[in-house]
Amino acid sequence: MIRSLGNEPPLLADGRRAPDKREVSLRWLSGTFLTGITSSVLMGVALFAALDGRQQLAIPAEAYASAAAEAHEDTTVVRGGRLIAPAIAAKPSDRAIMEVSTVVHDGEKEVVRRQPFAHVKMTLAANHVATEDYPDFDPLAIFSADEPQPAPQSRTGALYGSDVESEVSLKTVPFPTAKTGMKMASDLSLEEVEENVRSNGSVLTDGNTQLAALYYVDPRRFSNEEADVDLTAGLSARVLEQNMTVSAPESITPQTEEFADDILPVRADTPIAKALTDSGYPQQYADGIASYISQQLGASDLEKGDVLRIGIIQKGEQAKIIRASVYRGARHLVTVALDDKGKYVPGSEPPMLDAIATAFDDNTFAPPPGQNLPRVYDGIYRAALSYGMTKDMTALIIKLLASNVDFQAQLRPTDKLEAFFSVADSTGQATEDSELLYVNARFGDTQTRFYRFQDPEDGTVDYFDENGKSIRQFLLRNPVPNGIFKSGFGMRRHPILGFARMHTGVDWAAPRGTAIIAAGNGTVEKAGWDSGGYGNQTIIRHANGYESSYNHQSAIAKGVVPGAKIRQGQVIGWVGTTGESTGPHLHYELIVNGTKVDPLRIRLPGGKSLQGEALAKFEDERKRIDMLLNNQTPDQVASK
Question: Would the keyword Transmembrane helix be found if you checked this record's keyword annotation (predicted)?
Fold first, then answer.
């Protein structure tokens, strides 16, 4: 046992003595310290990477304690959820109430009056609180809900091209070209024309500056010299202010120099150079201009709340920084500008921009990926109701966006909705009489924009895109929105007959009694029992040779009779299993010029498109709305 453990003295070489246990090896001690320091550095690097720029790993206990009590009651834990979700604040500046002149037709008269309108820009991912309950998501209700019908004479009317102080009535009558009760004045003689020119000539000049000129007769009659006179000189006029030079217009090319201001809000104490590089400026430019700014500012860092304004000259793909200014709030601190020698020197304060005062307004907090945001459907209703819109108006927006937006998808932080609608007063609250005039919706990379327009020919109100094309689909592909696809178009083995047979439609399975909606506007061609195996059948004739057929219904809706006018989304019957059917479902067929086609594959035409005079009036209405929303003044002045 002793031999196995070893009791022999240590082997020594070169006459060295055995080490004393009380002595410490300097080499061992230095190696131990270096190992400890290296381990600490590696752990620090790993910890910094885990923090990812944050100041702490966990939410403080006091922050969690300050949360609402009801938030603590739910003990269910969802993977990826947060104890306190970052909130996006809705800005009051996103709502504007404006007085707009509108024109409403009243018989032969046109009444122009001022009416309040609300212009709202809604960030749907913000923490909006709905002011009232709204209906749960139901795909059938989206299309089948009764759309509020406008009055025979629109309550809002069209936007007027000029501002009026009060209510004005206009009446248009054709100019009497055939017979008139007024006496026509005789033509002026040559002497009378000359007298008018001589008497009015004094008001056409201001000292030595010619303001305007118009030759009524041969200019040689007023010339004392026999020199040649340019007869076309008086056909044009130009009014110039003092100390103004008029240069020839320059054509715009990709190499034309353009100036732009880049506004950079500073959200934390940051070095000047880092604030520039974080905004995309190259390191060499950032370091160079930061040194000049720091010399004038007396500091190399910007404080939280500062605004950095960069003036840029863009020429083709090259950009040059020619000016930089620092603002503390709305107070100007320092400006440096590029001189003719290419050096930065102290500069004077540039003209103030509104973007400086609102630099932090348009940069709302964006939640990180994985944030538990609501569905698109809930986000639209919560935002719209909190901004003063009614449930009917919100339902109309949902219906108009249904063909382009997935309402069951999760909201993205960038999803926005802009609307322009009439309101009752300056509070911005819509009423039953309010009408929606404009919507601009952005969901992900998809943008949908449409305008309200009343057709002057038939008086119908619809919504059109910027090109005058109806936003509505011509035909829906699924008349049972909450149905389940069971069988497609083509050859298949018939479930009852037992042999291969052409299936001339699409089957949508749903419980008995599920509502069936019309695929599009049209006229009922047939509504009743079919002896060929279709059971209760309804056929609707649409425009341009299209027909839709709905079969195996348990019952046909009241009022759906041959000759009746049907609108898209209207309930026309209920799912059943009448005729040759093995279970409750809808056999839906689409017929084009007498030929049955696949409803899911055929390319369907778009909705109604405006043409001719209607299109011209729509474009005028669209331009007026765009100018109002862009805070511009309409350039069209109405003559009264």
Answer: yes
Number of H helices and number of E strands within the chain?
12, 29
With bands split at pLDDT 50, 70 and 90, how would you rate the model's confidence at 288? Answer: confident
Share of the chain above pLDDT 90, in %: 11
- Domain contains 351: yes
Among residues 360, 383, 403, which one ends one of the domains? 360
| Residue 540 belongs to domain spanning | 484-597
- Residue that the structure tokens 């974080």 belong to: 278
Encoded tokens for 468: 């005058």
The whole model's pTM is what?
Answer: 0.49
- For residues 553 and 537, the answer to whether their CB atoms sit within 8 Å is yes
In this prediction, residue 362 carries a pLDDT of: 47
Q: Is residue 392 part of a domain?
A: no
Give residues with Cβ within 8 angstroms of 11, minimum separation 6: none
Q: What total number of domains does the chain contain?
A: 2
Domain final residue pick, 297, 331, 360: 360
Show the tokens assigned to 551: 């079969």
Q: What token pair was written down for 565?
A: 């006018």
Q: How many other CB atoms sit within 10 Å of the CB of residue 201?
A: 11
CATH code for the domain of 290? 3.10.450.350
Instruction: Return the closest-CA partner of residue 589 out of 577, 602, 598.
Output: 598
pLDDT at 35 over 60: yes
Cα 141 versus chain centre, distance:
25
Query: How far is the CA of 628 from the CAs of 164, 198, 217, 484, 625, in angstroms?
Result: 15, 46, 45, 46, 5
Return the CATH number at 593: 2.70.70.10
CA contacts within 13 A on the Cβ side of 239 = 6
Instruction: Give the number of other Cβ atoms within 10 Å of residue 573's Cβ.
Output: 25
Residue 352 belongs to some domain of the structure: yes
The 10s digit of each residue's pLDDT in 528-583 is 998 888 999 999 998 878 899 999 999 999 999 999 998 888 899 999 999 888 88
* Chain Cα centroid distance, residue 406: 16
